[in-house]
Amino acid sequence: MKSPFELVCPAGTPAALRTAVKAGADAVYVGLRDKTNARNFPGLNFNRQELDEAVSHAHEHGAKVLLAVNTFARAGNTGLWHKAIDDAARLKVDALIIADIGMADYAARTHPDLRLHLSVQAAASSPEAIRFYVREFGIRRVVLPRVLTVPEITALNKEIPCETEVFVFGGLCVMAEGRCALSSYVTGKSPNMNGACSPASHVAYKEEGGEMVSRLGDFTINRFASGENAGYPTLCKGRFKTMDETGYIFEEPTSLNAAELLPELLDAGVTALKIEGRQRSRAYVRRVVEDFRRAIDSLEGHAAAPQDDLTSLSEGQMQTKGVYKKTWR
Amino acid sequence: MALTKLTMGPNLFKWQPDDWRDFYFRLADEAPLDCVYLGEVVCDKRSSFVLPYMDKVVERLQNAGKEVVFSTLALVMSKPDRKTVRSVIADHKFSVEINDISALAHLTEHPTGKPHVIGPMINCYNEETMGYFALKGSKRICLPVELPLSAIKTLSEQARKLDVEVEILAFGRMPLAVSARCYHARVYKLSKDSCRFVCGEDPDGLSLQTLDDEDFLTINGIQTMSHSILNLLNDLDILKETGVGSFRLSPHSCDMVEVTRLFRSVLDQEISPIKASKQLATMGLNAPFSNGYLHNEPGVSWTVNNSNYG
To answer: Residue A164: beta bridge partners?
Structure first.
């Protein structure tokens, strides 16, 4: 029986990939161990041999491997990105997730048989933009920017000739992805250029008068009273002041959980559901993937399965349906 | 070598229509600018306010010998956004600036194609992307703000081969991010759809501080900008040598005619960049300067040591 959605799951390591496949992933997305992917963190990602083995393992178990080459190639060093794209084709990954127009052009010209998915980092948020990528580079699926509501996604799907994939769980960017330089403004490292946002190398915690202060670069991102859970200082989820307002001006430290929206997303014509978190542990991957697998499998008849409480896995233990509900804006 | 150009970027803030008109009239009459970008970039809902003055402003700028380019929206999602972009592109009178790929999509569907400018919010990070845009008819490309000098060098070399002009944002608060969420409305506890145009209260954006009361960022509707003011006066020489063809100034409520004159004087080697920066600092900007990105440092940093380019 065909699953109503393709469940696309994160893996930062070969072990996490095997865990995701076992837990019911239809596809697993991974990155190479360099600046070519947007989760370029120490100790994470795959070398070529590991990618080769990952593809074999996934294919043996009926799952796909998608390779994210979704940063913007550095001027004067595009060879590193070409090599990633060439290796994706050589190692027969099922699709390449791409963001940079120059690299999409290279992939389409050099490897016409390689299936291309447009990364969320490309920020294609309208039918015109998506059709452009389909026409120019033969994009087969677009990972939708986290700026659209469910009714907007429904309308969009009627106007585009390719599949859509949406995020359903995990870290939530408040800003349009691929169009944010907040991290590099403070640290010199950005998602677009370095594959990292608010990198740990620039994070510091210090105790000050009974409060825990979290800093990124030279700026205080948050202060926590004793007993308060001192979260990671992701820039856009810090506490700031403006006029007479103090608080989470951009976004609370929440993470996305769209599990309850699966029937609506199915009606909206969405093909694939994406779970964020290549930096997460195997235990996390197992629980989230299993839970969404059950939720998808019980969708026949449109009754969502009761959810496990995944709240404890969420950032700051708070969840939101995010931009899928218009009130978020 | 062609004279290095100065351009006035699109006004990213919501100003009172009369102030907006007077600002451009004065630029037309007094500012040594080669090109002025008009058009709303941040929020489609703002566009209509200045429309009654648009023809007059365009006429005055063109009569003063200034090129006029129409900038388009940075984040195109809704039907009204899409309609606005489509109609700007369909208007054959002007060259346009692309700030979202959907605008490029319209242009490349256009049978005759149309020369255009690629704005700084389009991700042109490398020579191959630049080559692609050149094939599609891009004549000028304003590079993303976060690029270091080494990348600008590579891209300028490529641009020369492609006969494309490289433009660099050289003055003003830097656009750092856009979001589906309007932070002005959020701060005022209003919904985005009934925002009462509260962003109009802040002609240079709404400043945001850390919990230590340190000035940090600037809110401008759906856009987040730097608090610091990008100032590349000290870097104009090396960028000119690199082959950068135009420098973009971004409108703020300070005396932009005077800002333009300062940049022109430094480009023409009439005054030193150090002296010009000192004058710029007295113009009521109430914010520190920055130029870190160019020097391969965090964007917020400020360095006048030219040996430190990345």
So the answer is: A142
Interface test with A, best of B42, B43, B76 (most A CBs within 10 A): B76
DSSP label of A71: S
pLDDT exceeds 60 at position A1: no
Q: Which of residues 49-108 of A touch B (CB under 8 A)?
A: 72-76, 78, 99-103, 105-106
Give me the mean pLDDT over the A2-29 stretch. 96
Residues of A in contact with B86 (CB under 8 A): 128
ipTM: 0.96
Q: Chain A residues with CB inside 8 Å of B191's CB? A: 327, 329
Domains, chain B, in order of start with CATH, read 5-176+226-308 (3.20.20.70)
Q: Within 13 Å and on the Cβ side, how many CA atoms surround B2? A: 12
Q: Give per-residue pLDDT as tens, B71-103.
A: 999 999 999 999 999 999 888 778 999 999 999
Nearest to A71 by CA among A40, A25, A111, A26: A40
Structure tokens, A319: 């969840």
CA dist A279 and A172 (Å) reads 14
At residue B1, the pLDDT reads: 45
Residue B306 contacts A where some CB pair is shorter than 8 Å: no
pTM: 0.95
CATH number for domain A6-172+254-328, candidates 3.30.70.330, 3.40.50.1980, 3.20.20.70, 3.40.50.1950? 3.20.20.70
Interface of A with B in 226-285 (CB under 8 A): 236, 238-243, 245-246, 249-251
